[in-house]
Write a structure and sequence with these properties.
The protein is built from 11 helices and 18 strands. With 373 residues, the protein is of the alpha/beta class. It folds into 2 domains: 8-201, P-loop containing nucleotide triphosphate hydrolases (Rossmann fold), CATH 3.40.50.300; 216-372, Ribosomal Protein S5, domain 2 (2-Layer Sandwich).
Length: 373
């Protein structure tokens, strides 16, 4: 049996191709979860309208009119997309057999029911049985199937844990609805890496120009280079307790920014090491950290970017848009090495960054010319 010749259906959505490992694998079962209203159905409808293939979009939550309204709003140009509003698994598979689509999308797995199970849709037994039927269909016909799933209050995908073992790929669509960015994160992938993530912007772009606003820098986390902003409160702190806060981030990033409140010395130490001209103190200023779009960050390598943002804001010196940072700051202000430095450099280069500041301990084993450049 030959390996390495897995057929993939590529889409024009480069972010989706990225998290799937290069495209949609034939006969695969993909589960995409997320909070209600985060944009799962919109993302899948966008895929259905833009991919050059025959699509069967099955909805158990919306009527055909509602789906058509969303499709018109998205402005899709592909006409080879078929809609089916049905919740009975046997009928869905019967339609799929006769249509023979290139891809089938189920919205959502919690609305389906099987006549073989005497329980309500969304129950553990129904979700398990319906997922099993769809898995057998995908493997026997070689037609990939996307399942949209809801998540519980604690952030896990609703339904039995067995559901995540049945499917080939588990994707999670996450973000804060108060911000414009969403993340498509890979939790499981039998056909590729789980270190990739896709970033979607709901609207707008960053402004053009070579300089960014004071206090804004880019952070290379090895998967996607992101921009963050650090602001200081105008004027000196007049005797009241100074504030150092982080907003719009994952709890791990808020923990990183909380270091400013608990122990600001490391950030002041590393700033002082840059030279006498950069000797700064944050104790008399209110500090606010924010990662653009509320994108979650769990990487300690963001510390160096925080330091650069603080200096940029305090000294009113803008950092060029083609510069990014990656490094962890220790208790005494030393800049420590971070993992996956090669991947971080490659990703930054792919996105057009010209220079990247890292720890000297990360330079071992790197190409000398690349480090100099």
């Amino acid at each position: 049996m030959q390996t390495g010749n897995t057929h993939r259906l590529e889409t024009i959505d480069k972010e989706l191709n990225r998290v799937l490992g290069g495209g949609i694998v034939s006969g695969s079962l993909v589960l995409i979860g997320g909070q209600p209203g985060i944009g799962k159905s919109t993302l899948m409808m966008q895929l259905a309208l833009r991919i050059k293939a025959k699509i069967l979009y099955v909805s158990g939550e919306e009527s055909e009119e509602q789906i058509k309204m969303r499709a018109d709003r998205l402005g899709g140009q592909v006409s080879d997309c078929y809609l089916l509003t049905e919740t009975n698994t046997a009928k869905i598979l019967s339609h799929a057999q006769s249509l023979a689509p290139d891809l089938m999308i189920i919205d959502s797995i919690q609305t389906l029911s099987s006549a073989h199970i005497d329980s309500t849709p969304g129950s553990i037994s129904q979700v398990r049985e319906c997922a099993g039927d769809l898995q057998r269909f995908a493997k026997e016909t070689n037609i990939p199937v996307f399942l949209i799933g809801h998540i519980t209050k604690d952030g896990s995908i609703a339904g039995p844990k067995l559901l995540e073992h049945i499917v080939d790929v588990v994707l999670q669509f996450e973000g804060d609805r108060n911000y414009t960015y969403r993340i498509l994160r890979t939790l499981k992938n039998r056909f590729g890496s789980t270190d990739e993530l896709g970033i979607y912007e709901m609207q707008g772009k960053w402004t053009s120009g070579s300089l960014q606003p004071f206090g804004t820098v880019a952070f290379a986390n090895g998967r996607r280079t992101q921009r963050q902003q650090c602001r200081r409160h105008d004027g000196r702190n007049a005797g009241h307790a100074h504030r150092n806060t982080g907003a719009g981030q994952h709890s791990s990033f808020r923990h990183r920014s909380a270091q400013l409140r608990v122990r600001p010395a490391p950030f002041e130490h590393v700033a002082c090491r840059a030279g006498e001209a950069w000797r700064v103190s944050f104790s008399q200023n209110d500090v606010f950290l924010n990662l653009a779009g509320g994108i979650p960050v769990e990487d300690p390598g963001i510390d160096l970017a925080i330091v650069a943002a603080l200096i940029s804001s305090l000294q009113d010196v803008a950092v060029t848009k083609d510069t990014c940072f990656a490094g962890e700051v220790g208790l005494s202000g030393e800049i420590r090495a971070v993992s996956r430095i090669d991947q971080r450099i490659q990703e930054a280069d792919r996105l057009g960054f010209k220079q990247m500041f890292i720890s000297k301990y990360n330079t071992k084993g790197l190409d000398a010319k690349a480090v100099q450049d």
